[in-house]
Amino acid sequence: MSQQQSTPPPKPTPIPQQDNEFYWEKAKAHELWLRKCSDCNEVYFYPRDISPCCFSRNTEWIKASGKGTLYTWGITVRPPTPAFREDAPFVLAIVDLEEGCRIPTNLVGIPKDPDPEKMAAHITHGMAVEVAFEDRTDAISVPVFKPVDS
Ligand SMILES: [Zn+2]
């Protein structure tokens, strides 16, 4: 007899703030936007009005290409909360974006396997990845990354 599992609770969603409302609005439209400092030209994540490099307020939004490479990653076998029960095992990752900053994210599109070693066989440091979006609610889509099909 199979044990019936209840539907997992909803995943937590970001709450847009003044500095990043635009970011989430664009993510909902499946576009990735970043902040750039107009004084020192640094592109940075997470989005905020004040440049973290030189504390300038002379910053702007730029549209990212959505392309990058995998900087580092790890496979989460045990879901951190019941909301992620059906996702596990899943891949946490940090991606180097083409624009020059890093973004913490999930790597998706990796064949799921209860044996993390088998999943790891599909992942390599520095592999080309591109953005995709997980529609989490009617208002929030979360950027994730997937391997670029060669
Ligand atoms: Zn700056």
Structural topology:
Blueprint: H1 21-28, E1 33-37, E2 43-44, E3 59-63, E4 67-76, E5 90-97, E6 102-107, H2 116-120, E7 128-135, E8 141-147
Antiparallel strand pairs: 1-2, 1-3, 4-5, 4-7, 5-6, 7-8
Bound molecules: zinc ion.
Describe this structure in words.
It is a single chain. The radius of gyration is 17 Å and the shape is globular. The chain contains two helices and eight strands; from the N terminus they run αββββββαββ. The protein has 150 residues and is mainly beta. A five-stranded antiparallel β-sheet has the order 6-5-4-7-8. It has one domain. Zinc ion (ZN) binds next to loops.
Terminal-residue CA separation: 44 Å
What is the molecular shape? globular
Number of domains: 1
Helix percentage range: under 10%
Q: Average pLDDT, to the nearest integer?
A: 94
Comma- or semicolon-separated keywords:
150 residues, mainly beta, 5-stranded antiparallel β-sheet, 3-stranded antiparallel β-sheet, 2 helices, 8 strands, globular, binds zinc ion
Question: Can you give me a brief rundown of this structure?
Answer:
This protein is mainly β and 150 residues long. The chain has helices spanning 21-28, 116-120; strands spanning 33-37, 43-44, 59-63, 67-76, 90-97, 102-107, 128-135, 141-147.
